[in-house]
Amino acid sequence: MGNLLKVLTCTDLEQEPNFFLDFENAQPTEAEREVWDQVDVVLKDAKAILDELQAYKGAGQEIREAIQNPSDDALQEQAWAAVVPLVGKLKKFYEFSQRLEAALHSLLGALTNETYSDPTQHLEREQALAKQFAEILHFTLRFDELKMTNPAIQNDFSYYRRTLSRMRINNVPAEGENEVNNELANRISLFYADATPMLKTLSDGTTKFVSENKNLPIENTTDCLSTMASVCKVMLETPEYRSRFNSEDTVSFCLRVMVGVIILYDYVHPVGAFAKSSKIDMKGCIKVLKDQPPNSVDGLLNALRYTTKHLNDESTNKTIKSMLQ
Description:
Blueprint: H1 2-9, H2 30-43, H3 46-54, H4 60-68, H5 73-112, H6 119-125, H7 127-148, H8 152-169, H9 182-193, H10 197-212, H11 218-237, H12 239-242, H13 249-268, H14 282-290, H15 298-306, H16 318-323
Helix pairs in contact: 2-5, 2-7, 3-5, 3-7, 4-5, 5-7, 5-8, 5-10, 6-11, 7-10, 7-13, 8-9, 10-13, 11-13, 13-15
GO molecular function: small GTPase binding
InterPro entries: CYRI (IPR039789), CYRIA/CYRIB_Rac1-bd (IPR009828)
Keywords: Lipoprotein, Membrane
């Protein structure tokens, strides 16, 4: 309880961490190697998942024709044949979210333990793990952006479930049923029903990590998140650091990570990222976003507006609210 009170009442935005986190070149030390190897296996598949999601076209045409011509068996079969492999992909994305959550648990375990006395030391001395944590956040926001703009995902899955239950009622053997049984279908359906399913997986996973590790003070986790946000902000607003980025892509990577970690903090911290007691300089972070070229960060500003938990709380500073209007 003392720890929780400490988190709730902490009002000082301490001296911001001032070091360069090398998102481009950080390599694991011997001490980091074991966790880094586990997480690397998962992250190696992340790009392929994003590529598949970006290329996901859906079976809208086939489904429409089947629904408009319910007695035409050939059209029903065509729609089913189009949907089954797509459901295989949706299942694969869902299963990847489970692997991502397990990877996040491994990283949080390493970045919040008592090896170092504070989160700044953890992030500065375990840069390869911090980079992997950043890559998970970057993937998460990108996945959810793509999912939000693709209504075919939920339409395809709904059609699959409706058709499957009709086949069961009529005792028609369903090729493809082995792919996704009823219990798994319920879980997948819940996953895609969320506007930002990967972010929900990460925030639920982080909350679960905190509750499962009662020996770790909650602020070990929340301070790790707020420090990561501060590091990103300081690197983006400090010309000396920013000039060390070899690629302009690192700027957008850093911005996306900063926003992802703010949203995660807002879900996990008892009073969120926008309260006076928050250890994240929200005004500074929003200013950094607004200083970027016009239209380049609309998606990230919208993520703060619409996917955070506490922005609309009465306790949120009016200046912050107006900056995000």
